[in-house]
Amino acid sequence: MLAANAVTVKPIGAALSCADVEQFQNDGFLLHPESIFDGDTELSLKRIHAGLEAILNGEYETGIPPSNANALPADLPRDGRLSFDDAAPVLRPGAKPRTTIHLINAWRCNTTIAQLVTSPQLGVVVGRLMGWEKEGCRVAQDQVWIKPPSSGPLSFHRDTPYLDFVPKQVCTFWIPFDDISVPNVGALEYCRGSHRWLDGRRGSARQFYKPDYTALLRIAAQDEERVRSRSSCSSAPPVDVEVVNTHGCAGCCSFHNSNTWHGSGPNATNGWRRGIGIHYIRGDATFGEDCGKLWQQFRHADGTTVLPDVFFPRVALPS
């Protein structure tokens, strides 16, 4: 019998075709515009919304806080609490847009969110798309991105530079908890084929909230053009910067290669745009020797590079 706060995922991996895998490999992402929830999607979303709201108000069902969290926009909590049901105050003309709310490892705070993040059904899809059937896969972390009404964009970036594991391969699953077919809601955008571009880190966390959210993408495209020109005997064609918007109902999803450039525009609506990105790594991945501060807290005291299962749960076992 399922718990009162349970959410379950459909076996979407069973419907994954060879054409889907090929499209993922060619484009660097794969869209699934239908709800992934098994059963009542509206009820599943209501439970997740409640879980997120509790975390934002400092209420951790498991007693464990998120690994990282930024400050809430000062004008949103009322009487010390944030509620998704409260209408956000209208910003005065010329006011700075609200900052996106960001949480890391919400799955460790709340069992409902943990059921989604650690779903073996998602692990099956990731293993198939990435070719990890022999190694299996595990969760590296989740990242909750909540765009309040009248909030700014998130800059285009790649995930790989921020995830300090060996091998560096990462697959990201993203699911919005609100309807992203609404115009100007700030849904995720992908640059098709950009996972094949020149490797390299672009920007820092401070640049995630810059108003010109495609600036780093344009720089990356220019760098890619220069690389192609140097390696070609003749003039290389311009790099095709084709940006694809995700779309679909609340509960739809997408998967992308960690090297795919992606970002999102501002939420210019009076509603919320809530969602979560889950980063998956190969089942046999280890810590990199120079892993950053975020990851150091999860290492064994003896300094071994082996990943502890308690912090990096396995969601698909090796075949």
TrEMBL record:
It comes from the Eukaryota. Its cofactor is Fe cation. Gene3D superfamilies: q2cbj1_9rhob like domain. One of its GO terms (molecular function) is dioxygenase activity. SUPFAM superfamilies: Clavaminate synthase-like (SSF51197). Pfam families: PhyH. Keywords: Dioxygenase, Iron, Metal-binding, Oxidoreductase. This is Putative phytanoyl-CoA dioxygenase. It comes from Leptomonas pyrrhocoris. The lineage of its organism: Eukaryota, Discoba, Euglenozoa, Kinetoplastea, Metakinetoplastina.
